[in-house]
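I'll show one example:
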Amino acid sequence: MLTSLSIQNYALIDDLHVDFNNGLSIITGETGAGKSILLGGLSLILGKRADLSNLKDTSQKCIIEAVFDVSNYNLKTLFESEDCDYEDITIIRREILPSGKSRAFVNDSPVNLNSLQIIGEQLIDIHSQHQTLQLISNEFQFQVIDVIANNNNLLEQFKSELKEYNALQKELKELQNFQADAIKEHDYNIFLLNELTEANLKDGELELLEEENETLSNVEDIKEKLSESYQLLNDEQIGILILLKNLKNNFQKLKDYSSKYEDLYNRVESCLIEMDDVFDEIDGMQESLEADPKRLEEVNAKLLRINNLMQKHSVSEIPELIDIKNNLEDKVSVTENLEGTIQNKKTEIETKKGQLDTKAKQIHDNRTDVIPVLIEQLQSILGSLGMPNAQFKIDCQLGDTFYFNGKDELSILFSANKGGQFNELKKAASGGELSRIMLAIKSVLSKYIKLPTIIFDEIDTGVSGEISNKMGDIMLLMSKTMQVISITHLPQIAAKGHTHFKVFKEEVNEVTRTNLMKLNHDERIVEIAQMLGGIEMSSSAIAHAKELLN
C-alpha cells in the first residue's frame, strides 16, 4: 500500500507531503484545484516520461518520492528480476533536473523507466473513465476470467512450454531450409570429396614427391657426378682415400715423438673413417640409382593432381586440403543424415504439441467452469448500480491456434436493457455504463487476488443519488482487503471514506499554488455540505452532510 507521497517543485506544487492509511481514502476539491496534478506526480513514480514543463521553478529540480509497504505483495522475485534491492518498506524516488534529464531510484538503486513501469504496475492501479477501454481488450477479459479460474500456475507452465514449442518449430524450419540448400550442393560436395579421397593425401608428401621428381628427372647427371666422386676417392694413384692412408702412415710414425703429432694422427684417422663412410654411400648410390621413366611419370602425375587441387581450393599446403576434405565429409554426412534428424525433430514437436494441448484443455475447462460464477456476480453488482437488466453472454471456445494464454477464442456480449440485443461491450455500453462494469469487475477481482492500491479517478462522473451511494459501498467493501483511494465530486461517496483529503489552491505572495490537507470530522462536514449545496451552506445541507457521515 501507498503510505506517503512527497512532491516538490512540480506544476503548481511547491512542497507537499501526505501520509495515507489503509482502507478507503477520499480526495475532493473544486474543479481545477489540482487533483490531476497529484495524479500526474504519482504517474511519474510509476514510470511516465518526464517533461521539463512540469517544473514549477525551472532553476530547481523536481523531486517526487513515494513510500510503499509491499510486505504482503510477494514482489521479492520481481525486484530481483529487475535488478532492484527489495525492502518491505520500499521507497521510489523520481527526479527531474533543470537540464530536462530525469532519474529514478528504487530503494536508492538507480533504475530505468522500463523497470519502474514493471514494478509500478504491481503497486498502484490508477483507474479513470479512460481506462475502461481495457474492458474491450481481449487480453484483459482473459485476465479477469483466469484470476477467478485460478489459472495462474497453469498459464505459466503453458507459456514456458509454448516457448519451447516455438523454439522447436524454429529449429525445424532452419533444418528444412538447410536441407533445401544442402541438397543443391550435395552432389557437388560428393564430387569434391571423391577427388580429395582418391588423391590419398598425406601431410609432408608434397616435399617428398618434389624431391623424388628432382632425382628421377636428373638421374644421368647425378650418375655422372657420383662416378666422378667415386674416382676422386678411390683412384690408385691420386685418390683421396690413398692419399689419406699415406698421410695416416706418416703421422703414425711421428706420433711417438710428441703428443701434438699424436693429435694430428687422430684427426687424420677420423677423416679417413669419415671418407671411407662417404665412399661406401656413393658406391651404394651408384648401384641403386636407376632411370625409372614409369615412376617419374607417376610422380609427375601425383604432383600435377596436388597442384590442381590446391589451385581449385585456393590453398598452398596439403594440410589445408586435408582440412577441406574433413569438412566436406561432415557436410556430406550431415546432408545424408538430415532426413532422420528432421524426422526426430518433428516427433519432438508432436510430443510438445500434445503436452500443450493437454494444458490448453485444462485452462479451457477451468475458464468455462467459472464463467457462470463471473456472470452472476457481475450482474448482481450492476443491478445494485442502477443496471438491473444488465446481462452478459460469455462464450469461450477451444480453437486450433496456440496463443500466449492457451487456445481459446473469447467473446463477451452485453445487453444493458431488458429485451435488448446482445452486442460487443464497446457498442452496447455507454461510457458511464462501462465505468460501472469496470468497478464491478475490480470488486469481483478483489475477492480472489491481492490487488495493488487502486485509485478511482472520478469514475463516478455522470451518476448520482442512490447509484453513487452503491458505488461508495462497493469501494468501501473493496477497502477491507486493499487500499482504495477515490477522487470524487459526489458527497455520497466522499462520506464513505475512512480518511478525507481536500485539494485546494491558494495564493502566496501573488503566486498560485496547489496544496492538500487532511480534514478532521468538522472540516469534513463543511466540505460535504459545500459539495451538496455550494459555498453558501444551508442548515439543511449541513444536516444532510452529518447524516451522510453518520
Notes: The mean pLDDT is 87.
